[in-house]
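Sat 14:20. Reprocessing the chain from the morning session after the first attempt stalled halfway. Input below, unchanged.
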Amino acid sequence: MAAVQPIRKEPVALHSQAMDNLEFIRSTMERSGSFTAVPGVGGMLMGATALFAAFAAHLAKSPKAWLAIWAFEATLAFAIGLAFSYRKAMRDGNPLLSRTFRRFVMAMAPSAIVAVLLTVVLFRAGLQGMLPALWLLIYGVGVSSAGAFSVRAVPLMGVCFLITGAVAVFVPPAWGDAIMAAGFGGLHLGFGYLIARDFGG
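Finished this time. Tokens:
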């Protein structure tokens, strides 16, 4: 007597395939609505230059020289971020000046403008000791806001900057360069690595 062959469970296979397709569609839609060209490698490079800037600023001979070093570092970090974002966007075949990129920039821009204005005011008033906390907090606000239009690691990084800035409010001013090294250096290095590992460079 011939053995009875079990009936193939096609509906289960079809259901599994349908779920895989839905997951692919969902992830594709999420990526299309997010600015995915956040540079992981660029973020790590930004962190490395911030560590050098913190060391140089700590050795600065005057408040003006100290501010000039950090202003140069901010400009350099912006250039690195933009260059590596462009590189990543071109590699992935996505236009850098996309709708999500414009949203990302518009979410960051107000914080950057406020940081520049308050830096001028506080420095003129001789309150440069408050600048590290101000910069970390405002950068954290900007990154958290812009992170709503990016991959999930970005808003988390913004929260970490906010925490670091809150700590900077209560530490002695002499610790300013060290805590900026931890924030702009360490956090960029750490999250840059995570973004490069999980979101493609």
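The helical segments are 10-32, 40-58, 63-91, 99-124, 131-146, 153-170, 176-198.
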